[in-house]
Each structure stands twice: as C-alpha cells, then as structure tokens.
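Q: Structure tokens for this one, please.
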Amino acid sequence: MSGSVAILGLQWGDEGKGKIVDLITAQADCTVRFQGGHNAGHTLVIDGQTVALHLIPSGIMRDNIPCLIGNGVVLDCGALLKEIAMLEDLGVDVFSRLMISESCPLILPTHIALDKAREAHKGKKNIGTTQRGIGPAYEDKVARRAIRLCDLADEDYFKERLKSLMAYHNFMLTKYYNAEAVDYKATLDKLSRYRQILVPLMVNTGEVLFDYQSQDKNILFEGAQGTLLDVDHGTYPYVTSSNTTVGGVATGTGFMPAWSMYVLGIVKAYTTRVGSGPFPTLLENDIGKYLGQKGHEFGVTTGRSRACGWFDAVLVRHACRLNAVNGICLTKLDVLDELEEIKVCVAYQTAKGKVDTAPSCARALAQCQPIYETWPGWQTSTFGIDDYNQLPENAKNYVNRLQELIEKPITIISTSPERNHTMILKSPFDG
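A: Here is the predicted structure, written as tokens:
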C-alpha cells in the first residue's frame, strides 16, 4: 500500500525519531525534513556504528532513497556541508540524492551572533536555545527580510540583500547588545563559495512531492524537536521557532494537507527535557539521575544533559489530539528495566482541583502537580528484544496501560538504539 507517513515527536524532542525514520525508510521512496534547523539532532545506530544527523533526513542512510530539505527548514550552509562531508567519509552517496527547497531561509553568522547575545543578555531568564541562530533566522523570515537559498543564484542581488540585512543585524549587535559586529566581506566570501555547491541542489519541493504523490510513491516526513516545543502549541515561550506539529508538514514542504497521511507519534517510556520551561513530572532525585545515565540522556546537538521524569500521559494525550496521531512508537522501554516500580502521570492537581487536560499557558503548567499511578517494574532485561511475546508480563502491562491513557495504539516498540532492536506490530505504511 502506498501513502504518506509523518513521524513526529510527542514530547519535548529527543524521543528517538531518527532511528524510527531510518527503520521505516525501508518502505519509503523518499524522506523529507519540513522544519527546524541544525538545532535538531537525530542519532542512528546501524550495525554498531553511530551517526548523528542535524539537517539531512535520516533516510540518507538507506541506499538510493531521495532526501528533501523543505522550505520550512532554516539552513546553515556551512553546517550542511560539514554534515555532507561526514557522510561521504562514511561512504554515503549524498549529492546524487539530496534536494533542497529553493525557498529555505539561510542562517547567517549574524543570526548566530544575535542568538548568543540575546541569551547572554537575558541571563538566568534565558530560554535555553542552542544558540545556533535558529530563532533570529525565523524572525527574519516572518519579517520578510530573510535571504533564501534561491537568492544565492543571483550574485548581484544576493550582495545587495546581504549587505542590507547584515547592516541591520550589526546595528542591533553593537548598539543594543554591546557585542562585536560581524564582518560583511568575510560572510560574503564564505557564502559565495557555497553557491556553486548548493545551487545545483535547489528544487521546488512542492512540485517534487506532487510528482511523487501522483506516482503513488511512499513519502516519509521526518519531524524535528517535539510537539511540546511547537511555537504555537508548545510551552511558549520555552519553545522552538517553528511548527513541530503535523501542520508544519504542509507549510514546510508544499505537500497538500488534503492528501491522506498516517501520523506516527514517537514517545519515550519516560520523559526528558533540555533547556528551560515547565516539566510537571521532573525527577530531581536518584531515579532521575539513573534514567539520565541509563538512557544516555545528553543532547546530540549541544551535549547538554537532559532533565528526566516519569511518563506524562496528560501531555502525550494532548499531543496525540493536536497531531491526529494514528499510532504510537514507544522508545527506550529498556531504560526502565531495573526499576522496582514505575509511575505514570494520569492527571494534574491544580488550585482549582483535579484536571486531566494540559493548560496552554506555561505558567499554569508549571504550577500543576502530577497525580500518579504506580506500576510494578519487571526487573529483567528487555534490551534488544524484537518479539513482543518475549516481553515480561509487567512490561506488557505497562505498555497496555499507556495505550489506554493516551487513547492511541502502540504499534512499534524500541528496546535499544540499534535499527533491528524493534518490534513492529503494525507498519505505518500499511495504513
């Protein structure tokens, strides 16, 4: 059966999307990134080899699969070329399969400088960005002053646009943030060198995807970050600068929302978060430390440690509804193997009483106290299990209870970072 599948994180990112995209790509005819930038990090472990990707869709690790970067992605040309070089060193053919939307806004060195200056200026009240220029680049896009990839193709026009935009950025850097200006000539020279490499990769992604859809090809859309970081629907202002929810697929690629799509939501068997913002089930104790160590909870992009907590069924159920999720992939079940008991947040206690829905306001969410159910652990290894029938009964009970709480079927279960350590109870391409 042909169709389209979107793989989306349903928590605060880092759910293990990269591995699942890589796995499901075996049935896909192309993979597509539709939002974010190189602030995202997807880790793949294939035959013991670890590969970290930030811009290029995870499907690149499958032979002969075309990979598209959509217009919803903000592009750091230097970061992209470093990633391409890394993959080529591994023997991966990139240039014959990579296509980039001509409408991608470019991240400039001044965007990065502004990002760093703002976070420093805010001090302890900072948002906790990756300081890679993502937010300032999206701001320029919305303000209609961004430089896009297609602008590189016209040298004179590009020079004029770059000079004007950098003058504005440097004014903000020097006059407001008391930071150093970024050199225009050095920036121009660097981007001019990128021109002949990247311009040949430009496409109209909407037209490419229309052709694929017309040919009944399987299209896989790879989300970055997670639903709770969506700029409209996440824990604002502690969010990213793009739409990480399913609506971002259409706006970030030109893929028509009227076309049918299966939405696979990815969740960890517990919860993690990087950066600032509310986190109702946060564990600031030995169990939280254990989850971080056992789960290797360090950011792929920044290296920052992730805060850990129990599974929050209230937030995940909310994310399922936002994204019209069809099925769930549960990752890192094996991280819970040694725990005597496992808790799940089923509701919140608030000043107004018990609620089972998540407030939209981050301040209100920060004041919510989790109400837990406690389940017995299985205290035996599930690492690497790829057959559901081999799971301990208590692990099955935990999985079944999560399905009931989030009101969606768990169709895939991952028990290690390895590609093949996965139970596929139902493939998303089977509808």
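A few notes: Residues 125 and 391 are 44 Å apart (CA to CA). The chain has a mean pLDDT of 92.
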